[in-house]
Amino acid sequence: SSFLRCHHTGRRHPMNERLVSILYQVGRHYKNAKLFIVAGYRAPKIAKQKGNPRSPHKRGVATDFQVDGASIESVRDYLRANFHNIGVGYYPNSGFIHVDVGRQKDAFWIDYSGPGEKARYTPPIARRDRRHNKQLADSARDRDRDSDGEELGG
Q1: What is the average per-residue pLDDT within 73-80?
Q2: Taking the model in full, what pTM does it have?
């Protein structure tokens, strides 16, 4: 079958049976809904170009997808509740879910990047808050120093 082939190169690669089984079970759970494959197998040179030379896509153990008529939040929650030793990536701004198999324990992440952007694992508000918190910490540290630059107190 070529539905999980690298859509950049057209190259085919064997896909992990458990991954295919999970995709089948997801489709069945959503009343035999169509699955839209965003990325299945990814040729090694493509994985490298996309910034992840160790991508599980290049080993045939990962896919990015959507389920027709189901929210990505619902699919994310279904995968996390019903399968173990998988990785689940939630991509709210790109509109898909990533699943990979063959892990020793469950993994979950959120990537806030949009389509075609570099991965961004921290939400914009948290990045702003982190910068603000660093500025507050720097200001407090500066206030706690005397004019010679030595720490006061403690």
Answers
A1: 97
A2: 0.77
